[in-house]
Design goal:
The complex is a heterodimer of chains A (about 325) and B (about 260). Chain A is mainly alpha-helical. Chain A contains 13 helices and no strands. Helices cover about 35% and strands about 25% of the residues of chain B. In chain B, the strands form 2 sheets. Chain B has a 6-stranded mixed beta sheet with strand order 6-7-8-3-9-10, sandwiched between helices. In chain B, strands 2-1-4-5 form a 4-stranded antiparallel beta sheet, with helices on one face. Classes of the chains: A mainly alpha (about 325), B alpha/beta (about 260). Chains A and B meet through helix 1, helix 2, helix 9, helix 10 and helix 13 of A and strand 6, helix 2, helix 4 and helix 5 of B. Chain B: Keywords: ATP-binding, Nucleotide-binding, Transport.
């Protein structure tokens, strides 16, 4: 029990039973939502009340204006340096030139972006699936833990980028080596976070599950897996950004399409605007995928998000 | 609605239970030759200092820990492996933090594959009985410690177990909430007729709730004495506290526990 709940319950005199106790433990920040739950009457499934759309928009704007400001300052500084030619134009183009390149060559760039996106997403999904299976194996079996964990660790220590040429030799110039590289890079954080999550189950809950006569599958599905989700989602967020790196590095080594290929091409031609446009598109892939995983997280584990929002915590 | 009472004989039988833990450096005896028979419908409270193996004793009955030697039986059947005929309440509520109160209670039904409509009806009864009405959807972190423990209690009672094992269930609650929970547990025990074994540090709790109080010694845990509690079956908290019989028993227990600790 946290001090908080003890303390409030004490102040509350004996009436732990009434709604007052709940409002008090929830703290002033939550008081409004707590009482609204009560007013809504019959409950349907165990979700906390969701904030309204308007409030969420306000919250979003509140969280976005600072990074937006930083970005605006950055662009202004870039534009200033480039337009004044403090740095030669063939090294740092102006934002306008980059925009120009991006719009005029859009159809080509879009095609290459889709290729890289495809490699990244496929690599990420495979890494997530394989990583989760490995994590389950490691968390459930002491033998597999001892057998697999050192190998996973060892595999992580090998610089994946150094494997890229070998993959090209083995699998050719197609998409396969890029996807494999993305998988190899994104795999590790999934395994580590998955193992950490699965191991974080309260041992008393597992004891309880045993007295409920449930088999391992039911215990996994109802207790261990949902319990592991917050850890796992954190690992997936890291993994998805790393998958982009894997795909691009794969393209560096040998490819005829994709943003990595375009980057090398632009580099060879000293085409700075194309280089910058390419970089922006690569980053955009990473950001979009990251946000998608964040959305998936919010949908899968709303209870966790509401906890992070600073609601008072008690143990368990 | 009342728990299925074991027809005849003992609800829990323990004979010669001994548990030794071997660590790298030492061998500890947690429990030493503990024998105790508990009749159906009894409310046995076990008091003793920290580390006397009280919790281990409950886990042995539940089949979660295997004794080094000795025999346990639950409802006349020897205990081998985890037992399903029990409800278990821990000091921590141990709730699933992603589920609302009602869904947490229904976990018991889902894990056992119980009939859904029947389980839902039973859950609603228990929610009403424990005063959780209005909090069905609340997530654990939105509930106070006392409310969380009520949810854990409902979960343990959902399948109407003939035996309820409680390991310091109210140990983490403040004194006032604890008294209130004691009174409620007493009422629930009378209503359901379940056999209860409750481990506690609190002498007042042990005497108020128990039909029998078992006193254990510090490590290695042995049963020093058992006291029948000569108080009416239907107890009111305030009345019991001012009852001279309560005082006498509490004083005896305090003396015994004090001396047990001093002699060690």
């Amino acid at each position: 029990m946290t001090e908080n709940s003890l303390d409030t319950a004490g102040r509350q005199a004996a009436t732990d039973q009434a709604g007052a106790a709940r409002t008090a433990t929830s703290g002033p920040a939550r008081a409004g939502t707590a009482s609204s739950t009560l007013e809504r009457g019959p409950h349907d499934g165990g979700r906390p009340p969701r904030p309204t759309l308007g409030r969420r928009a306000v919250a979003l704007a509140d969280s976005l204006w600072r990074p937006a400001l930083v970005l605006a300052v950055f662009f202004a500084a870039w534009w200033f340096v480039a337009a004044r030619e403090y740095v030669p134009n063939y090294l740092v183009p102006t934002p306008g030139q980059v925009w120009e390149t991006m719009t005029s060559q859009w159809s080509e760039l879009a095609r290459h972006t889709l290729v890289t996106l495809y490699e990244t997403v496929l690599g990420f999904v495979l890494a997530a699936a394989l990583g989760l299976i490995t994590a389950v194996a490691i968390a459930y079996s002491r033998t597999l833990d001892k057998a697999l964990y050192p190998i996973v660790l060892f595999a992580q220590v090998i610089p994946k980028i150094a494997i890229a040429p070998l993959l090209v030799v083995w699998f050719g110039l197609g998409l396969t080596p890029k996807i494999i590289l993305a998988v190899l890079i994104a795999f590790f954080p999934v395994v580590i976070s998955g193992v950490a999550g699965l191991r974080s189950t309260d041992p008393e809950l597992l004891d309880l599950a045993a007295t409920m006569g449930a088999g391992p599958w039911r215990t996994f599905r109802k207790i261990r897996f949902p319990n592991a989700l917050p850890h796992l989602m954190a690992g997936l967020k890291v993994a998805v950004t790393l998958a982009v790196v894997g795909a691009v590095v794969g393209e560096f080594v040998g490819a005829s399409e994709g943003l990595g290929y375009v980057l090398l091409l632009a580099n060879g031609n000293l085409d700075a605007p194309l280089l910058f446009a390419d970089l922006i598109l690569m980053s955009a892939i990473g950001i979009v995928l990251f946000v998608l995983v964040e959305i998936a997280e919010a949908l899968l584990i709303p209870w966790h998000a509401s906890r992070r929002a600073g609601v008072s915590l008690t143990t368990s | 609605m009342t728990a299925a009472k074991a027809a005849t004989g003992t609800a829990i039988g323990m004979s010669g239970l001994t548990v030794r833990f071997t660590t790298r450096r030492s061998r500890t005896t947690a429990l030493d030759d503990v024998s105790l028979d508990i009749e159906p419908g009894e409310f046995v409270t076990i008091v003793g200092p920290s580390g006397c193996g009280k919790s281990t004793l409950l886990k042995i009955v539940a089949g979660l820990v295997r004794p080094t030697s000795g025999e346990v039986s639950l409802l006349e059947r020897p205990v081998r492996g985890p037992q399903k005929e029990i409800g278990f309440v821990f000091q921590k509520a141990a709730l699933l933090e992603w589920r609302g109160a009602r869904a947490n209670i229904l976990l018991q039904a889902e894990m056992r594959g119980m009939d859904r409509t029947q389980a839902a009806r039973r859950a609603d009864e228990l929610i009403e009985m424990t005063g959780l009405t209005g909090f069905e959807k609340a997530l654990p972190h939105e509930l106070s410690g006392g409310m969380q423990q009520r949810v854990a209690l409902c979960r343990a009672l959902l399948h109407s177990p003939p035996v309820l094992l409680m390991d310091e269930p109210f140990g983490a609650l403040d004194a006032l909430t604890r008294e209130q929970m004691n009174a409620e547990l007493h009422r629930i025990w009378r209503e359901t007729g379940t056999t209860v074994v409750l481990v506690t540090h609190s002498i007042a709790e042990a005497v108020f709730l128990g039909t029998r109080v078992v006193v254990m010694s510090p490590r290695p845990g042995r049963i020093i004495r058992t006291f029948p509690v000569e108080l009416p079956a239907h107890r009111d908290y305030a009345q019991v506290m001012s009852d001279p019989r309560f005082d006498r028993l509490a004083t005896d227990l305090r003396g015994l526990l004090g001396s047990a600790a001093a002699n060690h």
